[in-house]
Amino acid sequence: MMEEYFNTLLQETERRMAGRCFGGRGAPAPPAPAGMEGKETVATCREMVSYLKAKNRELKAYALARPFSGNEEEIRYFKYYKPALTGRLLYYYRVYQIESGCPGCLRVAETYYRRAMERAERMMERYLPFYQYYHSGATYRDDYYFLRAKGELSPESGSFVLDEEAEFSTGYDILAARLISVEMLLVYLSRRIERAARGDGAEAVPGKEHRWTDTKIAAIQLVYGIHAAGSVDNGNAEIGELAALFEKTFHVDLGNVYHAFGRLRGQQNPTAFLDEMKEKLLKKMRDMDSR
What we know:
By secondary structure, the protein is mainly α. 64% of the residues lie in helices and 0% in strands. The longest helix is centred in the N-terminal third of the chain and has 30 residues. The chain is elongated.
């Protein structure tokens, strides 16, 4: 029953991720998620984090309502079932973190992605023996890794932010989930690095190219004004997303918009460009009325 329920949850998740559906006792290979290109990425990640949190709660509620039939079923739950869903949740959350802070300039973005990949690779190297055990199909340490009765600390024993009840984890199930998320993240980052290196990270815009010819600080005031007014995506677009869109559209590198905004706040008139734009628009209207 537990395996059948898990397979149904996983298939629903894979369909949501627009990947292939599969089940069985083995740890499923990560799919290639859809909707993870360009400006769609951050919104997709927000949606999937919410969705996967709900799926993790469903799986946990099912397990709590139906005690494990024995050690074998408990091991399967903490070795395969829980990590498969939690790993995908961690993946989307990590991509969300990375993309939210990604520079809009492709040259800088390539370096940014490479550093993120290096951090992910270090995580994989740190737990290489466990990773090799987990994917080898071995079972001789399953009782230690995936039964809660051992009562010893694991590398992830403190990572209970993912669980409302700390006792409903062996610690190593969280480690397995993290390694699944790192696998997926490395594939994602390698594609991002390749795109940034080719210089084709931006969507092609038909027709004449337009370039921002005013100051960068003027552009940053405009971006923050749009964000403050909630004019894009009903106010759900992040500053980083808006800045990246502005950079791609007008072929300008705005640099670190957060630091620039911090400096702007300390100026005597932090909205000078917006004020000037308002006055020029009003003057244009008055001139048209007077003709």
